């Protein structure tokens, strides 16, 4: 899910509940002195100053680190290794995402280094993971680094813990003054101590650190929208649908509901132009059983119910097809087809899916569990395609399938990357379909998306849900580095008529402006808009709210300039900005839209009730 609490939970790794429990019951902290390699050696790092740098600083995530698991400036070289338990403000220093971290130690003078170590903690209950690897480098002068080696984790990331591990690089003989320890947190990394074992003096003949050949690391650039597998898709709007507890009518879309997404409707209610070219259908959180589609607890009956309701005559896909036909008639154009992408729920590892089906690896072993879960996906894709062929939608083209889970739970099982690769093979064997994914910001596993078989991946910034002002720039940096597209997001609060609504609308404008500044306007973009937020904006008599819809149209149809409000974001400020005066006109007499309130309320239902299964 894309809501604020969902991303906060993902970012924190769900550790806070566990933390409170452990903090209350934790025994007295027990520490262990860092060992030395030989009698003549000492820990050269003991008490030495160090600096921590972050590749991708994020104010919001850094604030969480500083509040909960801060570094006092000496914890990493105090000579004490943290205990197996952890508490807030304990000996473990917490690092939450933000790409690569470097801990740089100054030994005070050139010394002889024999061994380097860094101690990390893993506790899956708290979202605390070992880094996949730790890299060590040394230098005689700042910035002139000699890479000594990389040490992979010896303990699997799915080991439950709590467990401690020393990442150690030994058998060294090098003279250097500075030491750099580098690692990348997938969620949380807890580091307690960095040790540098060696001698204070430098014997004659000891090799001095020589800078390694600088490798030019080029980013991949944004995901090219021209990729053949994308079938010409440029702007993909997310359509949440399906089961809503206590509100069964909310998740069903009609042709009238789809029309403002298929085509642009002016303030007088007339169809004027086309709008989105792609529609991603994905379920609300829960199925009728109460199981969650993205978390592996939905049942086989939930999966089948979801497919059946997608193809119910007069609603969902059929309603979208009819809306395209309606827009064709209004625009006096023929032959319009929009692309459709359909979600694949996440198959869990328990027998909840279907009694008797061996999905639990603890009972049947990992190979059989993986094979059975892949078979569940294959049956689902086959069922969807059978429904699609029978439906004969003249205005819809099935472009691909979307992996619903927004992260890869690699710390829960060794099978998750393999499962996605099998799902990719199933999708590609079924036809010329793309395999898509939209992970939340810096979610687990996103860096290996190509190896996992995804054709296109778009990163969620999550800026709309109260992240810091640097999030859009950071998200663009990640997208360029890893070859991703970007998701545009609007929270339901853009519909509010109060200061909170004003702030939400400013944040949405920041999204549009950032696409100009950071150059991703031409890549594949997904558009998250909660449940019918854009339709509610289109129907709103409030000019500020209506402008959300108008500005979205202008952006999608490449007629939108950067905002006059945000010169700090857009290099196009003062050149292409254009007024949206028509968006500020209230509706005329007889054009009242009672569905405005209903639609806005429905969107709030999608946040509250659809997440309460």
Descriptive account of the structure:
With 613 residues, the chain is α/β, with parallel strands linked by helices. The chain has two domains: 4-199, Galactose-binding domain-like (Jelly Rolls); 233-611, Alpha-Beta Barrel (TIM Barrel), CATH 3.20.20. It is built from 14 helices and 21 strands. The strands form four sheets. Strands 2, 3, 5, 6, 7, 8, 9, 10 and 11 form a nine-stranded antiparallel β-sheet that branches. Strand 19 (456-459), helix 10 (471-482) and strand 20 (485-489) form a beta-alpha-beta unit. Helix 4 crosses helix 6 (317-331), helix 8 packs parallel to helix 9 (416-430) and helix 12 (533-539) packs across helix 13. The relative contact order is 0.11. The model is unreliable at 3-38 and 564-610 (pLDDT under 50).
Throw out a few tags for this protein.
613 residues, alpha/beta, Jelly Rolls, TIM Barrel, 2 domains, 9-stranded antiparallel sheet, 8-stranded parallel beta barrel, 14 helices, 21 strands, F5/8 type C domain-containing protein, DUF4855, signal
Instruction: Output the CATH topology of the largest domain.
Output: TIM Barrel
* Share of helix, binned: 25-40%
| Cα-based radius of gyration, to the nearest Å | 27 Å
Content of β-strand? 15-25%
Parts with pLDDT < 50 across at least 5 consecutive residues: 3-38, 564-610
Q: Quickly name the level 1 CATH class of the largest domain.
A: Alpha Beta
The major sheet is characterized as: 9 strands, antiparallel
What general form does the structure show?
globular
> What multimeric state do the chains show?
single chain
> Helix count?
14
Overall SS class: alpha/beta
What's the average pLDDT? 85
The number of distinct structural domains comes to 2
| Corresponding CATH architecture of the largest domain | Alpha-Beta Barrel
Tally of DSSP β-strands:
21
Q: What is the end-to-end distance?
A: 13 Å
Protein name: F5/8 type C domain-containing protein
Biased composition (Polar residues): 593-605
Signal peptide: 1-23
Biased composition (Low complexity): 583-592
């Amino acid at each position: 899910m894309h809501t604020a609490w969902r991303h906060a939970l993902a970012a924190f790794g769900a550790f806070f509940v566990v933390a409170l429990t452990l903090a209350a019951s934790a025994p007295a902290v027990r520490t262990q002195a860092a060992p030395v390699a030989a009698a003549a050696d000492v820990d050269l790092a003991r008490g030495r100053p160090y600096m921590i740098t972050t590749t991708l600083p994020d104010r919001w995530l850094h604030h969480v680190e500083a509040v909960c698991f801060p570094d006092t400036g000496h914890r990493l070289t105090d000579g004490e290794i943290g205990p197996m338990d952890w508490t807030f403000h304990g000996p473990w220093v917490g690092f939450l995402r933000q790409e690569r971290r470097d801990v740089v130690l100054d030994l005070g003078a050139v010394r002889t280094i024999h061994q380097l170590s860094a101690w990390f903690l893993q506790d899956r209950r708290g979202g605390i993971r070992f880094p996949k690897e730790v890299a060590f480098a040394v230098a005689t002068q700042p910035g002139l680094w000699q890479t000594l080696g990389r040490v992979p984790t010896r303990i699997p990331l799915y080991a439950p813990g709590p467990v401690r591990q020393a990442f150690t690089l030994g058998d060294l003989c090098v003279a250097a003054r500075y030491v750099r320890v580098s690692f990348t947190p997938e969620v949380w990394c807890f580091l307690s101590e960095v040790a540098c074992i060696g001698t204070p003096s430098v014997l004659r003949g000891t090799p001095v650190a020589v800078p390694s050949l600088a490798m030019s690391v080029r980013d991949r650039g944004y995901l090219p929208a021209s990729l053949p597998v994308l079938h010409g898709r440029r702007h993909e709007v997310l359509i949440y649908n399906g089961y809503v507890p206590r509100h069964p009518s909310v998740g069903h879309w009609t042709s009238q509901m789809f029309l403002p997404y298929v085509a642009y409707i002016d303030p007088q209610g007339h169809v004027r132009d086309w709008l989105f070219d792609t529609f991603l259908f994905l379920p609300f959180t829960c199925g009728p059983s109460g199981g969650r589609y993205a978390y592996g607890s939905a049942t086989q009956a939930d999966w089948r119910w979801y497919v059946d309701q997608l193809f119910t005559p007069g609603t969902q896909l059929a309603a979208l097809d009819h809306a395209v036909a309606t827009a064709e008639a209004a625009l006096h154009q023929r032959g319009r087809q929009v692309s459709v992408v359909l979600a694949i729920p996440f198959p869990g590892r328990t027998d909840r899916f279907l009694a008797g089906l061996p999905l639990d690896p603890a009972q049947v072993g990992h190979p059989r569990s993986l094979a059975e879960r892949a078979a569940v996906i294959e049956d689902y894709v086959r069922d969807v395609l059978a429904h699609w062929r029978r439906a004969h939608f003249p205005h819809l083209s099935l472009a691909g399938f979307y992996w619903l889970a927004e992260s890869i739970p690699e710390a829960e099982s060794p099978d998750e990357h393999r499962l996605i690769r099998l799902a990719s093979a199933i999708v590609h064997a079924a036809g010329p379909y793309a395999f898509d994914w939209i992970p939340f910001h810096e979610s687990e596993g996103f860096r290996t998306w190509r190896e996992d078989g995804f054709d296109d991946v778009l990163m969620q910034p999550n800026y709309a849900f109260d992240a810091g002002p640097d999030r859009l720039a950071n998200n663009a940096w990640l997208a360029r580095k890893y070859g991703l597209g970007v998701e545009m997001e609007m929270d339901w609060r853009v519909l509010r008529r109060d200061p909170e609504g004003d702030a939400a609308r400013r944040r949405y404008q920041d999204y549009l402006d950032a696409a100009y500044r950071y150059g991703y306007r031409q890549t594949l973009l997904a558009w998250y808009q909660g449940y019918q937020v854009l339709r509610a904006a289109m129907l709103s008599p409030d000019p500020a709210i209506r402008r959300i819809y108008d500005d979205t149209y202008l952006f999608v149809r490449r007629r939108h300039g950067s905002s006059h409000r945000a010169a700090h974001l857009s290099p196009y400020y003062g050149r292409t900005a254009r007024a949206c005066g028509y968006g500020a006109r209230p509706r005329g007499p007889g054009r009242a839209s009672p569905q405005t309130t209903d639609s806005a309320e429905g969107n709030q239902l999608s946040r509250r009730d659809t997440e309460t299964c």
